Amino acid sequence: MNDEELHIRFLKAFDAANAMENIEIPIDLRLQFYAYYKQATISSSNFYNPNDPVDIRNAFKMNAILQVKDLTPNEAKLAYIKLVNQTLIKYKINHIKPI
């Protein structure tokens, strides 16, 4: 799959993830979505500032981002797509088709 095809699949996965907004999904799974999305779109190297004061919610977000910081944007896109598909299956979300 080329970069353009991957990006199109990633955007479809993002739409699918947004459609899961009202479904009860554990916060740790939501943090994984967040981290992969950020790494795929802005890369943690442009996001992380160890001198910023953070509250607890931002600390959890930062931890999630640090866990994926070594992924390339394309690797993060693939991981995001895979996570969306796994979530759709695990939580039996039938009104959204896997990507």
UniProtKB/TrEMBL annotation:
Protein name per the record: Acyl-CoA-binding protein
Pfam families referenced in this protein's UniProt entry, alphabetically: ACBP
Ranges that cross the membrane: none
Lineage of the species this protein comes from: Bacteria, Pseudomonadati, Bacteroidota, Flavobacteriia, Flavobacteriales
Gene3D superfamilies: 1.20.80.10
Domain ACB: 1-93
Species whose genome carries this gene: Pseudofulvibacter geojedonensis
